[in-house]
Amino acid sequence: MEKIDIQKVRADFPLLRREVNGKPLVYLDNGATTQKPKVVIDAITNYYSDMNSNVHRGVHYLSQISTDAFEVTRRKVQEFINAKEDFEVIITKGTTDSINLVATCYGKAFIHEGEEIIISAMEHHSNIVPWQMLCEEKGAVLRVIPMNAKGELDMGAYANLLSAKTKLVSVTYVSNALGTINPIKEIIDLAHAINVPVLVDAAQGIQHLAIDVQKLDVDFLAFSGHKMYAPTGVGVLYGKKDLLNAMPPYQGGGDMIKEVTFEKTTYNELPFKFEAGTPNIEAGICLSAAIDYINELGIDNIKAYEDELLAYATNKIIEIPGVQLIGEAAQKSSVLSFVVDGVHPYDIGVILDKLGIAVRTGHHCAQPVMDQFGIPGTVRASLAVYNTKEDIDNFIAGLNRAVNMLV
Ligand SMILES: *Cc1c(COP(=O)(O)O)cnc(C)c1O
């Protein structure tokens, strides 16, 4: 815990100093989006004050420096996830966009009638719906890896689902609704044993765990900037070179072409083939400030700190009568999802909000998870590196108060 200087970290995030409903803010909705450190906020201002210009186009000075800064991000992401090539990093709008890109382009080239795509029971809607749309279009079949009552995937059932019909596996690294960390290396290895590529949704993994795409041997990795201390509107799709090259382009437009005539258009090479149109330049450039920030703290230090906070919070919450944790996997990350007997999650959320405590309530874009547990939703407290034991104490006190009022 000593490795994170928490007072210094907190001072880096201006928004954490504000009050909400007359109370100091306790921000525990990091699974939805994280707050931004001053270095990222400054990078946004700096971009517009100093270099605003379109990328990959002009010969003029400003266009060159904004292009250089945008491409620095690509290489920073490459290093951060240890991709072999910088052109294997596609800059997208976010996780949803990255998964839709693969569903559309990989789907177009490689998925046929009767073939199967495997996802899991704990996916975010953005790793369910694109595949359903693809299956509907192609007459393909969606298969779902079941999970147990603790929120752990049934790996035996997964092994049985894999077959000659399987064309892709797409699973989340960490569940946003349950906090489960899936055995992603084992999932990948089992699929690779029958030559099936794997997409990993790392939207809840990238900010909490060290990820090395070469070590994992993952085929596609998707994540969002805004959940890792960067602005909204930027994300990443990592893909292995051979797969990306074999896929048709996503959207048509500027930047993704080599030559356009009315008779025939030839496509640009990687990564530009998948980056049509003007990107979110400011967010793209600022993603590199967020990665620098994470690197300075050290992702392993972040994980150790958050693990300790999670254990602290878990021990306190299970003492509250009537509270039931949803998601009790042996391997968990920074999410406390729970229900209170006889109380709607929304009512807890409203009382906590009055006390300045921000949590999320509802199905967390994972309705099938809620269906499996037979509940309409949960209250979710999700942690980031700037949360403290004091935040947890305030949250637990607020929750006690809410439970006493409502039960
Ligand atoms: C947030 C989230 C997504 C979607 O990310 P967007 O930034 O909304 O595109 C997908 N999967 C998981 C696990 C998430 O937590």
From TrEMBL:
Q: Does Acetylation show up as a keyword for this record? A: no
Cofactor dependence is on:
pyridoxal 5'-phosphate
Q: What EC numbers are recorded for this enzyme? A: 2.8.1.7
CDD domains named among the record's database cross-references: SufS_like
Q: Name one GO molecular function term.
A: pyridoxal phosphate binding
Instruction: Provide the Aminotransferase class V domain boundaries.
Output: 26-395
Q: Which UniProt keywords apply?
A: Lyase, Pyridoxal phosphate, Transferase
Catalyzed reactions = (sulfur carrier)-H + L-cysteine = (sulfur carrier)-SH + L-alanine
Q: Which PROSITE patterns match?
A: AA_TRANSFER_CLASS_5
Q: Which family does it belong to?
A: Belongs to the class-V pyridoxal-phosphate-dependent aminotransferase family. Csd subfamily.
**Protein task:** Catalyzes the removal of elemental sulfur and selenium atoms from L-cysteine, L-cystine, L-selenocysteine, and L-selenocystine to produce L-alanine.
Protein name per UniProt: Cysteine desulfurase
